[in-house]
Amino acid sequence: MTHQHSVDSAIGILDSGVGGLTVVREVFRQLPKEKVLYFGDTLRCPYGPRSSDEVRRFTLEIVRYLSGSPLKALVIACNTATACALDEVRHQVNVPVLGVIEPGARAAIQVSRQGRVGVIGTEGTIRSSAYERALKRIDPRLYVVSLACPALVPLVESGGVENEESRKILRESLAPLKGHRLESLILGCTHYPLISSMISQEMGPGVALISSAEETTRELIAILRRDGLLREGPSRRPEEHHFFTSGHPASFRNIAEHWLHQPLQVEQVVLPALDESRVG
Questions:
Q1: Annotated binding residue at 227?
Q2: SS3 31
Q3: Going by C-beta distance under 8 Å and a sequence separation of 6 or more, which residues neighbour residue 248?
Q4: Whose CA, among 12, 127, 187, 189, lies 20 to 30 Å from 24?
Q5: Burial class (CB in 10 A: 0-12, 13-18, 19+), 116
C-alpha cells in the first residue's frame, strides 16, 4: 500500500525479535519528536539458521504490514534481514530504507587504527559475508575475523539475564576470537547490544564494541533532514508509539519496557500469507 508521507508520518522499524529495540532506543534518544512503529517477529525468531529465501519472505511480509500505515522511513534493524532482503525492500516501497550493516562497518573502521576488525552475528549474517564485503569495500587491507554465534539470540530473547550459565554460553561462543588481537568487534546482530556489558567483560577493555544502532540513527536523521521530514514540536508521548509482535505480547512487553524504560502498547499480529504483488 502506498501513502503520501509527511513530517507526521511514522518511522517503521522491524526485527526478528527484540533485538531491534536497540535501534528504537537510539531513535527515542536522538529523535524524540518522531513516532515509531516497531514489529518484532518473535514467533519466528531467530532468523539466523533460516534460509535466505525464508528470511526474505518474512521480511517482505512485515514490510507489507507496516506499510499499511503512513511511513516516512523504514529501518531493517536486523542484520540477517538486511543481508537477505535490503535491496528488494528498497525496490518495493516508496520511502527511504536503511539497513544496519553499512553504518556498523563504517563505525568499526573509524576506531580500528591497525585495521583488525571482528564480526559476530547469526549464522545467516555470517554466511552472507555482508559485513566482510562492506568492510573490504571501504578498506581492502583490513584484517577481518567473522564468527557465527547462534546461541546468543535465544539468550537475549529469554531476557538476557546475567548469570553463570549465560556467561558460560558467552565464553564458549566468543572463544574462537581470542588471539586475533582485535581492536573492534562489530555486534552484527541487533540483539547483541542488549548483552554488551557481558560481551565487553569477556573481550576485555582493548576491544571496542560497535553497535550499528547509533550510526544507523545518525544516517536516518541525515535522510529525514535532506527530505525536509524532520518533525518539529513536542516530543512524542509513549502512547503514540506502537509495537507489534507475532509472538506472545506480554513476554515482548516485559523485555521491551525493561530496555526502553517506558510503558508500551504491544499488539499481537498474525501475519497473513504474503502476496508479493501488494508490497509497497
A1: no
A2: coil
A3: 42, 268
A4: 127
A5: middle
Q: Over the chain, what is the mean pLDDT?
A: 92
The listed range with the strongest mean pLDDT (155-169, 246-260, 266-280) is 246-260
**97-98 β-sheet, strand order:** 97-98, 71-76, 10-15, 36-40, 242-245, 266-268
Look up the pTM and report it. 0.88
Instruction: Flag whether 47 is marked binding.
Output: yes
Q: Which three cell numbers stand for residue 273?
A: 500469507
Q: What is the CA radius of gyration of the chain?
A: 18
Beta bridge partners, 267, equal: 244
Answer yes or no: is pLDDT of 241 > 80.
yes
Residues designated as active site: 78, 189
**Quick check: 212 and 103 in contact, CB under 8 A?**
yes
Which residue in 1, 5, 4, 22 sits closest to 13, CA to CA? 22
pLDDT digits (tens, 9 = 90+) for 184-222: 999 999 888 889 999 999 999 999 999 988 889 999 999
125 in Cβ contact with 86 (< 8 Å): no
| CB-based contact 162:197 (threshold 8 Å) | yes
59 carries a ligand binding annotation:
no
In the chain, the amino acid numbered 50 is R
Is the backbone of residue 176 left (phi > 0), alpha (psi -120 to 50) or beta? alpha
